[in-house]
Amino acid sequence: MLDIVFRKIFWPYIFLRDRYVEHQLDALSEEDRFRLIYKTGYWKGVGGGSLSGEGSSLAATAAIRDSLSGLLARFDIRSMLDVPCGDWYWMSKVELGNIAYIGGDIVEELVQENQRLYGKSGREFRKVNLIADDLPKVDLIFVRDCLVHLEPEQIQLCVRNVIKSGSTYFATTTFTDVTENRMPVLKDRWRPLNMMLQPYYFPAPVELLDDSWPANPADVRKCIGVWRVSDLSSRFPGRTAI
Q: Which of 191, 186, 154 is nearest to 174 (CA)?
């Protein structure tokens, strides 16, 4: 109810802010795109919450927080790269135990603030460009709600980069009910993707984690697919672990 009141009061500001951001996005690099989105609160809206938007709220992440904790235990995950980590709003509620955790994001200001607030022994935050940077070799590379904002060519570069890292498992957002992957049309490029369809052709995952959010019809069939990185190599030749 309070959020509805906020939206009514601040609607003119939100409208003008969003039009300004959308006008700027096409001309910016990936790093500058996401910096602008976070600095303006484009995904956040009003009334508090995560800078990463409603999809990173505690309500929207209830299912994945529960299923991710189980995965970490079952797969005996000892090290993890979480990218993009955003403002670490919901992941801070996940029981990570003694996992060596690295939170990565392309926005320098975000990782600096996360390191100040949450960094400690065994938990660090660093600037990471999933497309271009060398990634650390870890047990699990976790990429939620990122590839759905990228162009197909960028997605393939990300996956090849994951393969190059030599990590064990790769977990990323996939929508099992999508029957055709479409090109992005929104300014932030979001659209649901099924990673097992063309042009990605992922094999069947070793596990699907529930990432649904019943309050949002678009997220009812949302999952996190978990793949062995070694199983992806044949789909994306030319990038192997060093």
A: 191
